[in-house]
Request: fold
Amino acid sequence: MLRRLVIKEKVATIGVLLFVITLFHYSAPHQWYLFHTVMGHAYVIPIIIASYWFALKGGLISSIIAGILFSPHIPFQFKEVEVDKFIGLFVYAVIGAVTGVLSGKLQKQAEEIYDAEEHLHATARLSSLGELAASMAHEIRNPLGAIKGAVEILEDDFPKGHEKHEFFEIISKEVKRLNKIVEEFLGLARPRQAAHRPLSLLEIIRTVSFLVFFKAKKRRVQLDIDIPAHIQITGDPDLLKQAFLNIFINAVESIENGGTVSISSREDETGVVVEVADTGAGISPEVIEKMFKPFFTTKGTGTGLGLSIANRIFREHNGLLKAENRVGKGTVMSIYLPKASEREI
Reply:
């Protein structure tokens, strides 16, 4: 919402500049030749601003509008139509195009620098988490193991049907949940080295789909798989299964009262694109910006590590994870992965 307001303000600013320049142009006396020449050149200002804000598209559109506003003034102001005045219209377009292209490249470089800085900060945070995790994991897991063992022994004295048996089930469930949180934390903070090899994408997806089948069935979610059998990718099977499992679980849990999770893929010259589309409620642009950051979650019981771990794993495979919200239709998670070369296969 805020982004749309900023765009509207920028468009309005460019429109006001064009209007003011045109107003001065047409309201000044004909004898002010120098003034009209300056005003004609002044159209370059909104063109450059539009190119800076909206790249090539903004530069071309603003130059066309400036040309339309200026062209009727040529025969109106000058007794003889001079060729150089019409050449000026062409110059508007050239300035808009060149400035727009350069601005687009600068914006792309700025985004790449920003992404690199974010990745550097994330790496630094994970390094600190790794040191913390190494010191805490042993201290946390040992008591959890002792609690689990003690509960299993005590359960024999309170079989199913006993009024206190449910309390032992609660303890076991909470111990498993805590152990899962510790494992996710360690998985994010202390990633293991990937062992890359050629893999069947369909086999990876089928295995992960089986792991989420009962969760999906419980929530009345249908899994639709459309993966060609011939597609081969390069990667670590265990890490990729973990990453896709986190994506699938997130998609299934986004659906409240039955729906569909569709998994499809396509190939291009550079790699493979896997799309996981759900029919859930969708996510807001604000959440999309934060959803891959560690510990960010919109779930009451989530750890906020699942998507962050998946994003890291795909990055380690020279891939990319992107989220797209479909208004009223759910969310699409797009995974870009390099495909296996013929030499590797």
Summary: Strands lie at 197-200, 221-226, 232-235, 259-267, 272-278, 320-326, 330-337. The longest strand covers residues 259-267. The chain has eleven helices and seven strands.
